[in-house]
Amino acid sequence: MNKKLIFGVLFFNLFLLSCSNPVQKETPSNSEAKEVFNPDARLKELGINLPSPAAPVANFVNAVKVDNLLYLSGNGPLKSDGKFITGKLGENLTIEEGYEAARLTGINQIAILKSAIGDLSKVKRIVKVLGMVNASSDFNDHPKVINGYSDLMVEVFGDRGKHARAAVGMASLPFNIAVEIEMIVEVE
Description:
Elements lengths: L2 H17 L10 H7 L2 H7 L17 E4 L2 E7 L19 H23 L5 E12 L7 H16 L6 E7 L8 E9 L1
Parallel strand pairs: 3-4
Antiparallel strand pairs: 1-2, 2-5, 3-5
């Protein structure tokens, strides 16, 4: 028998064996995956109660869905008493206060996100975050401030919360708020 033919038959048989490997990795069903990924339970573990989403202050909406992407308008650090955290980083707010303002903004954005999609387990990925910091001209720690938002997204959504991001300084923001943050989310 021809050596090339024998080699070809052997190779083909090995190929067939590799294709019919009886050992396969189990993949969780959709319901099991949702049980593992439970942002609402994670919020509860963190002691975070989502507020009612604030109404827009001008002629725009909080969220717009295009295909499987949800674009959330910029929001700020609105406290439960209806007042914003205000001030300018580098003048009358510390990095730690800015971090907390960004975290609070994240909580408010998650409330809007939940209102828009109903079930936070539908989040496939936090795609992009634009963080704007009300800062003095010599302030240069914008990323440390916006980390308050980014850290929260990862705490709540795990790896799905890791995102692309920009953290920039602004000469002013509406109502003198400390931060304004918008995001894009991929949803089911």
